[in-house]
Every structure is written in structure tokens, then in C-alpha cells.
Amino acid sequence: MSFGINWIEAWWWPYLFILLIGWLPTDMWRVLGVILSGGIDENSQMLIFVRAVATSLVAAVIAKLILFPAGSLAITPVELRIFAAVSGFAVFNFVGKRVFAGILTAETTLIGGAWYLGVF
């Protein structure tokens, strides 16, 4: 038997599996990054490069979700997904770069638009 999400037949095992395999390794690198980055200048060329790469990766994931979605998101029209992202970004900028407001607007637009179009 191999180690995996179905390794143990208990209700709590998938949650522990997600914690061990998903969250813990990611969080370990975050903590290590915080510890090792104490003396780095925020305006150094290396940190600017790292920030640019991280931002581009997030943008690529968002673009993939909008243009090539999977699951329930795939049944919504691409125009609605683009409109929801643009409206969320507009509200994000309009209210003083508040992430929660942008996400809430984009999700409300997407869910409301899908409901209006009869997708769900």
C-alpha cells in the first residue's frame, strides 16, 4: 500500500494529509524565508527581481484560471470571467488597494453573472 490520501480509512485522514503534504512544506519555506531575509535591503536588485517573479507567477495563475478553467468555472462564459476580474481589479484600486474588496467584487460579479445567465 502506498502513502496517499486514501492511505488511512478515517474521516480525519484527508484533513491531516492536506496539512502534512500541502500546508506544512509550504509554510516551512515561508518561515525559512523570513528568518534568512532579515538583513536584506528591500530595495536591492535581487529582492526586486524576486518580487517581480512572484508577481508574474500569480498573474499567470490568474490568467490560466480565467482563460483555461477547470471544474465548475469552465461552464461560465469567458467574457463573464474576464468582466469579473476587471471589475474586481477596478474596485481594488478605487477603494484604496483593499484586497478583500476586490475579491468580494470579483466573486459577486462572477456568481451573480452566472446566476443571471442561468449557468448554475
Oligomeric state of the chains in view: single chain
The ordered H/E elements are HHHH
Query: Tally of extended strands?
Result: 0
The backbone outline, from C-alpha atoms, is: flat
Instruction: Give the helix proportion (percent range).
Output: 55-70%
Radius of gyration over alpha carbons? 19 Å
Terminal CA distance: 40 Å
Quick overview of this protein structure:
The protein is mostly helical.
What is the fold's blueprint, element by element?
Elements: H1 13-36, H2 45-67, H3 78-94, H4 99-117
Helix pairs in contact: 3-4
Explain how this protein is built.
With 120 residues, the chain is mainly α. The chain folds into two domains: 1-39; 41-117, no CATH class. Helix content is 69%, strand content 0%. It has helices at residues 13-36, 45-67, 78-94, 99-117. Helix 3 packs antiparallel against helix 4 (99-117).
Task: Name a few traits of the molecule.
mainly alpha, 120 residues, 4 helices, 2 domains
